[in-house]
Protein 1
Amino acid sequence: MGEGLEIDHVSVRFGETSAVDDVSLTVPQGQVLAVLGPSGCGKSTLLRVVAGLQRPDRGTVSYDGRDVTGVPTHRRGFALMFQDGQLFGHLDVAGNVAYSLKRQGVSRGETHARVDELLDLVGLPGLGDRRPATLSGGQQQRVALARALAGRPRLLLLDEPLSSLDRSLRDRLGADLRRILADSGTTALLVTHDHDEAFTMADHMAVMRAGQVVQTGPTAQVWRRPADPDVAEFLGYTTLLEGAPADRLVPGAARVALRPQAWRVDPAGAYVATVLSAARTADGVRLRVAVEGVGEVDAVGALEQVPDADDRVRLVPDPVGMAVLPAG
Ligand SMILES: Nc1ncnc2c1ncn2[C@@H]1O[C@H](COP(=O)(O)OP(=O)(O)OP(=O)(O)O)[C@@H](O)[C@H]1O
């Protein structure tokens, strides 16, 4: 049995609802696994089982080969971090970070040094005497991470840690958290409904649907090779091509999923299309077009040239926005 977390055939029922249905997953020592799925798929329940806050009806949770299914939360050596940080407002930043160290009976001097080290790690040196209310949302999440890491947990459990932040901050902090977890060698399980959050923070991904795990693998691999159309749609692919159009785009492929970025308006493009609709977005123009010999797809263009419905445009396909799916 390997080192790290092992979830083995875990099921949880609430009355008629099968919240978690025979889920098995492993998170090897030092790895970050994101469990990605829509609201209600059972990911929070699964996280609660791992944390020891929910007893499974079936199955076991083990760490480093030891069954911890019956071990109380505070004796598992795991730490939790939630979407809204949940810092103690009456304590300053240092007091928040030191919280678990005090409870563990760590000496004052050692606590002081560890708090400084953790505030450095999360990019907030010197902010120890600030109150949480005087920090930005992103800074508060960094403090929450420092607090979670303080007791050197063998496993960090993260429940949508970035979802209360705005988009640009989310991307930046996500990349920072990934680096911090890697630098500290932390083993982590992240649950989220946001594919960007999963992608920025984790090396490996498990996609859940209706209580079950439907795909696992390295994040880039799941991204490039979604198991089925539902997974593809959940990952942000907006169109599915099957049969001849798929084969025309990617020779030999039976099904191809496309992101809007898979087609770019370009006068030099080899494909001819009729514009069905066009809308301005912050990143450019988003089009729905009917491509000759392919079908209806989304496309992107530059804001300088917003076409009208029924206009003819030329398009260049971009493989980066395409994923080949197994035949259905
Ligand atoms: N304590 C409970 N009692 C009854 N049903 C519950 C309970 N907790 C969760 N459920 C149900 O179990 C299913 C899975 O819920 P869960 O919260 O794990 O999903 P989720 O993917 O985390 O969703 P969200 O992202 O919205 O939190 C849902 O159908 C939910 O209604």
Note: The radius of gyration is 23 Å.
Protein 2
Amino acid sequence: MTGSLLRTVDLRLAFGATQALAGVSVEIGPGELVALVGPSGSGKSTLLHCLAGILRPDSGSVWYRGVRLDDQSDDRRSRLRRTDFGFVFQFGSLVSDLTALENIAFPLRLAGVRRRVAEARAREWLHRLGVADVAGKQPGAMSGGQGQRVAVARALVTGPRVVFADEPTGALDSFNGELVMDELVGTAREQGTAVVLVTHDPRIAAYADREVVLRDGASASTEVSA
Ligand SMILES: Nc1ncnc2c1ncn2[C@@H]1O[C@H](COP(=O)(O)OP(=O)(O)OP(=O)(O)O)[C@@H](O)[C@H]1O
């Protein structure tokens, strides 16, 4: 497909005797929201980690903006993760001894942005996600929903081309889960950021433009969401 942003070709990866990925080929377009769904153990998180350049497949390939990603050095892949990708995980991925403001400013600081500028931008994001009141709090002093909104801000603050979200609402009740999804999806669409989302929850998957269904490490089907 022309115009694909991320693509895998016949991806295979085993952990010992477990074939986590057994030949997965998927494509993700710029700004597209794709949900990876399927039963527990079907390979969703493993596929997300391969797409993000965190795990290397045993065979097959991963392409990002037309360049092969999986055979690049660890250094180059981690640099790309800092510059082009954002991450939201289930819970507890914020740095526990940094405040909300410092957590959001952190990826900007890693990218070489000066502290004052980074913190001003982080403050804007706290307002944007409705959690300005937790700016000076550490993650342990926030609710689950507040923490995930801070995590969404941290993932989007650098203006990434892709956000990878692994069960981003898994630890939240459905009300807070939907609020976090509204914010993640709304801001991603505004910025033209693609989102690759792993979820068990059909209501969360329904936010995506398309669902990729995995079964036993293979992409069983791809469906356009209603
Ligand atoms: N680091 C690892 N070491 C050993 N086995 C692993 C590892 N990571 C994943 N697996 C195995 O690979 C298979 C796919 O795991 P994966 O986490 O990708 O599935 P999943 O669809 O995301 O599951 P879930 O919905 O339960 O999170 C599973 O059988 C799992 O036990």
Note: The helical segments are 44-51, 74-84, 100-110, 115-128, 144-156, 174-191, 202-205.
Protein 3
Amino acid sequence: MRAVRLGLKLGCKTHRARCYVIAKPRSILTQYKDVTARHEWSLVFARCSSLASTQNSNGYSSQSPTIYALSTASGRAAIAIVRCSGNLCLEIYQALCPGAPPLKPRRAALRTLLDPTCGGGKDTEVIDSQALLLYFPSPNTTTGEDVLEIHIHGGPAIIKALLRAIPKCVPLSQSHIRYAEPGEFTRRAFYNNRLDLTQVEALGDILSAETEQHRRLAVSGMSNTLNQRYRKWRTQLLCARGELEALIDFAEDQHFDESAEDFVRSISKQIRTLVSQINKTTANAAKGELLRHGIKIALLGAPNAGKSSLLNRIVGREAAIVSSEAGTTRDVIEVNVDIGGFFCKFKDLAGIRSSATDNSTIGEIEQEGINRAKAHAREADIVIALIPFGQDQKSDDNTGLAFDLEILDFVKQELQEQKRVVFAMSKSDLANQSAGELVEPAKLYLQNTLGVAVNMIPISCLGDGDDTAQSEIDSRGIQGLLDHLTREISELTAAEQIEETSSANQSIDASLGTTQRQQELLKQCAAALQEFLQIIHPNELAGTTDTDEIDVVLAAEKLRVAADCLAKITGQGESGDVEEVLGVVFEKFCVGK
Ligand SMILES: Nc1nc2c(ncn2[C@@H]2O[C@H](COP(=O)(O)OP(=O)(O)OP(=O)(O)O)[C@@H](O)[C@H]2O)c(=O)[nH]1
């Protein structure tokens, strides 16, 4: 009779009303056949479908003005594309090309564009004698409305003439045609269900992608995988909540003690899996942020170790001052570079040393430089520690390398915190031995000092890297270091698989494209689910999921909060939320997008 008591305790009218909204009828039908016989499941079905279609109904209507804008970059170019969207596209065409044959949908047509204010007579002004026009009738278009693309010669005067002419194509043009606002084409696509919010965000990413890896990330974000995943999770939560609330509602006069316990246990298992998937997504999102905003790589080493020389070799220009005078670099020099398709931010730092190493005092300015260097190295995703060959006063006799204890201490701490550290043996051209002879004793020394096995790449910044007359180390060292770095970055940014089936046929997991906004909402979602599990857990820990002891109403409420977070991600949330998000997203969009 436990279930009966539960029903009496919780089965108030309010909860009954709510439970109809999100029930997953099929599974409940199977589990609780007796219950279904006595309740109006048609009502449940009806409410379910209305809930499932909480899509934005804020679509642009046929009354919305037709918009137009230059969709290619402004300035001189071979071609320029002006795009129009709305129900006046064909009127615009007829006014610009009076008497020309009708446009066939999705077929390019070569036309002469005329100034619509000249009436098409003998003195008619030609805007462009060879324009290519494409007409896409709604609804299967980028915006969901009729779209007209006008490809013209890309001279600034032609562009201006066409943009002046378009609003004059239709009488009373002010109210019916206007220049598009930033991102308005995409906004219309969103409201007409051609794109969801996650795809709109990925579109912004595509436009700003500068490196190969960022491009791949943005393209995978546009693929709809992420959106489908969020929707699937939300449906799972809606179903779980529906079943839970049905339990409240129908428990009143039913006897399903054991099955109810199994049922709660099965829901909590599902939720645990979901929490783990969400956590993996947010971890992958952090890796995606690295691809988007750049991997921070710090060049660490003693004064004169060759940090600035290495930076200059990597970027292929004199970005930092190189001098034989120790302590030349006092502050951070930051340079962005594309390494193996990854966006990297290299930081050349002040040399680090301790006064004990060479018995010389460290002045205030130098100390500040050292402090800053350490702070930047701590923040970096990867540290390249430069150990120079043969700097007399500090050389280790066995290896000929200048190990500075201050640096090794610092690196040891970083390694303990799982930081990726790449060791480079700089100035290896000064040694007479081969790379193998140099590297092995150095690696052994470092392993003994740091307590972990490390890699050591011999490099030289002297001469031209392509000069085969240079020693083996000179010509290959820097490229070897960059190849090693690329491998480290690939590992650092490799996404963890979210679902069994995911990534199987994808080169990059879509979760890498999770934006900051989505991450925040995913964290809120996971927090609500954790609270749900805490409500269910105490009983599980006691070896039972006695439904009598569980506050089912509160548990169902946590599922509602979690499902709402996912709805906000995809734009299925309240219209106020969506507007707020769109405002932020479209702020970054240009006119014509
Ligand atoms: N032989 C040799 N000399 C190098 C190499 N790399 C740098 N040097 C020389 O070492 C000196 C110091 O080089 P930098 O690149 O300024 O060293 P740094 O670590 O940036 O020095 P600070 O700014 O003082 O910390 C310069 O005279 C360079 O020409 C190398 O690979 N081989």
Note: Residues 190 and 494 are 31 Å apart (CA to CA).
Protein 4
Amino acid sequence: MGDHRAPVDDYITFERVSEAAHRLPAPYLLAKDLPHTLQDQMNRLPAMYRKTQEAVSIFEASIREISAIDDPGAPPISIINPIEDDDEATPPWEFSYTNSIWHGEDVPAPDLKSLKGCNCHGVCNPKSKSCACVKKQSEWYEDENRQPGFAYHTSKSMQGRLQQPGRQYPIFECNDFCGCDDACGNRVVQHGRKCEVNIVKTKQKGWGVFAGPKRIPAGSFIGKYTGELLGDPVSEERGRKYNVFGRTYLFDVDGYQIGKTLGMAEGEYDAAYTIDAYHAGNAIPQNHSCEPNCMILCCYINEGDIERPLLTIFSMVDIEPNEELSFSYSGAPDDTEVEAAVRITSAVYAKCCCGAPSCKGIMFK
Ligand SMILES: C[S@@+](CC[C@H](N)C(=O)[O-])C[C@H]1O[C@@H](n2cnc3c(N)ncnc32)[C@H](O)[C@@H]1O
């Protein structure tokens, strides 16, 4: 009698799931549990203390301590204020440093039911015709030669870098249900930040993120846009509050793959979720530039809900040592919008000080 079972590569057998069970997804975090003890203690001290070198050391140590848990192996971050006559020693002690996403109360748990993994052994072959993750990624991305594959280079010299930096496409990494191991070339964001960055005060844009002493090659993973993941009504309410004091750290979770998957026409999808990096975040919320060197890509790992990708930042071009990292806050406003903005001086816009030759002089806040 012939064997009528599907080829083993096409599905995950129970045995494969239990083999991978040592990497079941970590429990997700709730925004209401965000730690704030250190921030409260620092804010209780006389203001003078927060301007000292000790405060800088505590800030840097807290980043190291948290990263040891949620981004192990990431190079340490220094806090530097090179501006003369500016005595702000650290970013405000208002937010908890985190490389994780914290779910607001209105956000459901990650959807693991519709999450699928590949059934590969060892490392996935980007040329495989049967790897479920190659198939998934190839629905959204093909390389320059229109060949299916992963979003990342898997060759040794380029490993982990985007194949086409600057191109907008969603990334589907191998996940905790996959049979491949941790060395698989389709696991990049989940292995954390590898490049060196520092938090540096700028003259006109507040604190920014700058490359360390090494060049960051194009297509490198810089970090995740982390913070609280909020549903639409809560983020709308926060947006209104932030507009009053002229600052916002809200970033809509949007991407063309979401509307398309939900059967909508282009531009029709209204983000259901937003990341708020005001109360919690990492070094990665960078400043805006009209000629950015980084971009945000949606990345799916242990989340089956198409509406809830991670927002991840990658370099689009080679970034020189000590150069500022920047991205465009939801694209540059076009000329008509700029004119309208100047007329109504809306709270949504601010004067742009990016200094790029093609600076439009105005940016979304
Ligand atoms: C997400 S925060 C970035 C971190 C911020 N620089 C800080 O010190 O907290 C966004 C705010 O940074 C400032 N900013 C970012 N890019 C800027 C730019 N190109 N020109 C002027 N201000 C900028 C604006 O105040 C903006 O509302």
Note: Residues 53-70 form the longest helix (18 residues).
